[in-house]
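We store chain and fold; thus.
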Amino acid sequence: MDTFKRNQVEGAIAECLERVRRPGGEPNQALAVRLKRLIETDRELPLRAHGQVAASGRTYAFFDEAPPGKGVEVTYSNYGAFGLYLAVRLMDAGMPQSEAVRFMRQIRREIEGEHHRILGVSPEKLIDHTPPGGLEREIRAGLLVRSLDHMTFLVVPADLHSGPTWFRRSADRNKLVNICRSRKELNEVIEFLGIQGPPIIALELTNPSHRLIYWLHKIEPIKRGRKA
C-alpha cells in the first residue's frame, strides 16, 4: 500500500483546493495549520462506540492504526490523505473541527470503501467527454467527469445535531444512503434533508479522489526530521 509524507499530503490537498501557495511550491501556512489541527484532534479525541470503534480495533479518521507520539514522523495512506481533504471541505462548509473529525470516524468504513471503489476504475473508463488537453490534464484539474450521473456525492447536514441525518445502509451493505452514485440518488437525499431545515453539505468524491492521488504521486517527499 502506498504511503505518503506530510509534505506530500499538504501539497496534494492544496492542489485540489487550489489554495494560494508560498514561494517554492509549499502549501500556504493557513492550510498547513488547519491540517495539523485536524491530525492532532484525531490523535487526541477519545475513541468511543457508536461507529467510532470497529470490531477489529480502534478506528481513527485519518490514521490506519494508533498513531505514535508527537515528534515522530507519520506517513499517511491514500485514504488518510483523502479523509483529511474531506474534513477540510466539511470545515469550509461550516462544520466545526472536532465534529468533522468525529463524523469522519463515524463513516470511515463506508467512505473508505467508496474511495477504493472509485479509484478501482481507471480514468480511461471514467472520463465522460473528449479531453481537450489530454487525459492527464483533466485529472490534474479535477475535470475527469463532468456529468452529475457520473459523479459520486457525500451529502450531509452542516449541523449533525439538528435532526435526522439518514445514516442508514442502502441495499448495498457497505454504502450509506448519504453516498449518492447518481443524479436520482442525489436529488432524493437532498430533498429529504432539505425538509429538516439546516444547510446541506454536498461533496463530490469522484474527481477529487483521482485528482488527489495524482498529486500525491507528483509531489516529492521531503525529509523534515521528527514531525507527525
